[in-house]
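#lab-general

N.A. 3:47 PM
ok so I finally got the sequence cleaned up, no stray characters, all 412 residues accounted for. can someone with queue access submit it? mine expired

B.Y. 3:52 PM
send it over

N.A. 3:53 PM
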Amino acid sequence: MEASARLQLDLAWANVHLHRDAATEAALDRVKVLLAQAGADAPEAADLAVEADVVRSVLLIFSDRDEGVAALLTECLSRPDTLRPYIVSVAANIASALENRRFEYDKARRTQAWAMTYHLKTVGSFSLMFGYTLTGLAANEQLDLAAAEDSFRRALRVAEYSAGRRSHATRLAGAQLGVLLYEQNRLPEAGRLLDESHELGAEGGGVDFMVAEYAVGARLHAVRGDRAAARARLDEGASVADTLHVPRLRARVENERVRLGFPATTTPVTFAARRRPVDGMGAVTAQAEEDTAIRLLLAEQRPDAIDRACEWAREWVAMLDGQRRPRALLDAKRLELVCLCAARRVDEAKALFTEIAATCAARGMVRYLADGGAGVVDIARVVRDDQRGGTWPPAWQVVPAGFLDELVDLGV
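B.Y. 4:20 PM
back already:
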């Protein structure tokens, strides 16, 4: 019985990393039956049951579902030294992923520091690579980009050393580094990493990897001037999102579609019908959906629609202020800036621009700001003129002249 359960668990591991959810569920169901037949006192039965719970936690996280994940990890993380290091390593990674999704970024980084002992005892590169990537994702959300890049590069080195330059692990590891470099306008390396990550398709990673592959990959194509390739990448991402039933990916792909000026393919949420999510990924999805809806309001070019867009965008800024989600707040402020530009509220736009630009300049996020939307580069040009003309108000935050020059040049 135990040998059969071991085989079914191996099948579950293989299928879960390929997003074959039905096959994973079937294998885990068979494990449950076999372990019940063997009895709780059978040798290794308890450990196999813990391992099955860890596989199921991977299945849920990869499917962008959080409910029940913490409970599935409890026993494994309560007796780590009684189990195979690989099982503990994966469980720690899922715990970090869950903490990131709950916006507990410091905790996610601490979990990875604790897990390093188990990562290093594991054969192969995947667990350690994912651990570094999860640390980087937490740092990135905190706008600690130096630490994020360091973690992403560690993930990439581990994968390349262990599995080779063209390996599955290396392509996954490079995806998040590619996004970070893209936002800093370091396009040659970003382009190579994102192009290579696309060769994975939908296999081998969670939604964060898919967002890099499809949404940011599409924007990279657009920056290169290949809008047909950008649109094809977005269509592919939407298809994957629908097939795998992951609303967060669908929302992010649709948002990128609208930001790039392609026709929307879903009905936008309305201000009156906006929802208040109950969990982290629901909040991330809602922000992307409402960002899309706000931009579509701006596209109507009616004063009342623009006023509603400004009100809606400001609501997100107010809601996120104080939540310890620096990147999400920066995204909301960037959208508010676009709305103020559309409303021709120039003084307000300039003041907000300098606040956002100071944050971005300190982190080299010039492409991130340029990609904000219509009016951002234009207001940057106006602010640069103020700086050059010596009319920079004392209340404005300081923005380096070189950053403003680079930003304006991106709009040429």
